[in-house]
Amino acid sequence: MDKEELSTALSMAVDEMEGEQGDSHEIFMRIHQILQTMRAEGLPVPENLAALEKELGERFEADAKE
After folding, report:
1. What is residue 1's predicted lDDT score, i.e. its pLDDT?
2. Cα–Cα distances in angstroms (integers) from residue 8 to residues 2, 11, 44, 46, 60, in the given order
3. Nearest to residue 33, comparing CAs of 8, 59, 6?
4. How many other CB atoms are there within 10 angstroms of residue 38's CB atom?
5. pLDDT per residue as tens digits for the range 2-60
6. pLDDT value at residue 52
7. Measured between alpha carbons, how far is 13 from 64 in angstroms, rounded to an integer?
8. HSE-CB for 47 with a 13 A CA cutoff
9. Neighbouring residues of 37: CB distance < 8 A, sequence distance ≥ 6
10. Residue 59, domain extent
């Protein structure tokens, strides 16, 4: 995926997350995967999306422990 495709995919996933369209865990996993791809390709990861990834990861980890 090129930078534009990654940005589009991220935008769509965040829109789905905000609109509660679908399984939030699945959406989080897509966001995580896209951000990991960006990191692997040396692309900058927006701070707000990195923070969202961290927050959601912690939330799902806590839910899994319950």
Report:
1. 65
2. 10, 5, 15, 14, 24
3. 6
4. 20
5. 778 887 887 787 777 766 656 778 888 888 998 999 999 999 998 988 988 898 889 88
6. 84
7. 22
8. 0
9. 1, 6
10. 3-65
In sequence order, which residues have a C-beta less than 8 Å from that of residue 6 and are 6 or more positions away? Answer: 34, 37, 38, 43
Could you tell me the two tokens for 27? 């959406």
Total residue length of the chain: 66
Residue owning tokens 């865990």? 25
- Nearest alpha-carbon partner for 60 in 26, 36, 37: 26
Tokens of 12: 């769509």
Q: Which amino acid is at 11?
A: S
